Amino acid sequence: MPTATAGGPAAPGRPGPPAASRPHRTSVVRTRPWLAACFLLPALVLLGALVVYPIVYSVYRSLFDSSGTGFVGLDNYVGLFTDDGILTAIRNNAIWVVVAPTACTALGLIFAVLTERVRWGTAFKLIVFMPMAISMLAAGIIFRLVYEQDPDRGVANAVWVGVHDTFNEASAWPGARPRPGSDLEESGDGSYTTAAAVDAAGPADLPLVGVPPQDLAGAADARPAGPSGDGGVTGTVWVDFARGGGGEPGVIDPGEKALAGVEVEAVRGGEVVATATTGEDGTYALPAEADGARLRLPAANFTEAYNGVNWLGPSLVTPAIIASYVWMWAGFAMVLIAAGLAGVPRELLEAARVDGANEWQVFRRITVPVLAPVLAVVLVTLVINVLKIFDLVYIIAPGATQSDANVLALQLYLSSFGTGADQGAGSAIAVLLLLLVVPVMVFNIRRLRRENRP
């Protein structure tokens, strides 16, 4: 029978020495539960006072009427889906949840990828991230001014009007109209036409009014038109109004101002036979073809100046506010995605390029899939954030269109502390918001557990 040699294995059939037993670790919670309770008690008290109690009380309060004394059961919850204002808030919240997080995440991804290879990428990221340092209140005030209707105050309309006027010529004298009692009559499309035909025998003067005095500051004095040498029609277009009163209607009095740049058309049988434009002194001269025609001042001479877009009107107020939110939070998404992008193995990217993939294929098939966990974190965080959006909507939306931009958090405030002060309905909205947030939180927790699973 073989025996074990020194330093060799034990003989077959004979058990080896027992393995060293590992020390058994006992948790602190089992050995000293009072110590664990002392550490957990402050956190549990705060959690109960700031989270659990408000939730329980909100559910309880939502079952009572506005005074809090009459039990109404689920009537407040039924009202959530029958009240037009609350239904608008629910619809707007759905728009916010779909558009705002997606836009922020997409812009953050684009910024992070494009600035990775440029020398000034850090400076660009700093600029994009800077709005995060501004409070919602300050951002709301900023964008309330940005969206002002007056182009002289609102940046958005100043840019919009500038672009519009670059490609569309502005009218010569917006708001001008014929003097009452003159031969000019409205044609129905914003233009003005003489009631009778004109001829070369005498000047065909066209008196107008309605031009603000400040617009006439640099205008020259009007003067009568002389006869045309080729049998054409001449005349003057001027503001038939003398400062300080006086003057004779239909007559060019001293000091009355000329309207330069006005287009005058000669119309015969519905067709334009000749056109002319007034000079600095308001005079115009039409060729002989205008003899016997009627004169028309096209509507393009008098259309009101373009004042841009009503950004805070009923149809655009929600997209405008979402744009301000994206301005603030795109930097947040960019920073998180850039941090995840720094951890992407460069070997994968280089291997794909060596295999012939172009940059778009590398981005779509490698960068985005590898960054999927980071993108999910950003998207879920922003979804939770927009579900409780309040400040921007309350500050940016004017009173006339606040109902069109309404969201659940704002409706909660208005229902609880507004004119009606119905805290039962407000508590029901709070419970609805909680129910909307819970699935997102559950998804986030499951995702974190799945990522931490070995």
From TrEMBL:
Ranges for domain ABC transmembrane type-1: 90-444
InterPro entries reported for this sequence: Ig-like_fold, MetI-like, MetI-like_sf, UgpAE/MalFG_permease
Taxonomy, superkingdom: Bacteria
SUPFAM superfamilies: Cna protein B-type domain (SSF49478), MalF N-terminal region-like (SSF160964), MetI-like (SSF161098)
Pfam families: BPD_transp_1
UniProt similarity note: Belongs to the binding-protein-dependent transport system permease family.
Record keyword Transmembrane helix present: yes
Compartment(s): Cell membrane
Transmembrane segments: 34-56, 94-114, 126-147, 325-345, 366-387, 424-445
Record organism: Streptomyces desertarenae
Keywords in alphabetical order: Cell membrane, Membrane, Transmembrane, Transmembrane helix, Transport
Regions of compositional bias (Low complexity) in chain numbering: 1-11
Stretch list, region Disordered: 1-24, 171-191, 212-234
Name assigned to this protein: ABC transporter permease subunit
Membrane topology: Multi-pass membrane protein
PANTHER family recorded: BLL4140 PROTEIN, DIACETYLCHITOBIOSE UPTAKE SYSTEM PERMEASE PROTEIN DASB
